[in-house]
Amino acid sequence: MRAAVLDKPGVIRIDEIATPAPARGEVRIRLEGCGVCASNLEPWAGQEWMTYPGDAGGLGHEGWGTIDAVGEGVAGLAPGDRVAALSYRSFAEYDVAAADMVAKLPPALADQPFPGEPLGCAFNIFRRSDIRAGQTVAIIGIGFLGAVLTKLASDAGARVIAISRRQESLDLARHYGAAETIAMHDHYAIIDQVKALTGEAMCERVIEAVGKQWPLDLAGELIGFGGRLVIAGYHQDGPRQVSMQTWNWKGIDVINAHERDPAVQMRGLREAIDAVASGRLDPKPLYTHRYGLDQLGDALDATRDKPGAFVKALVMLA
Question: What transmembrane ranges does the database entry give (predicted)?
Answer without folding.
Answer: none
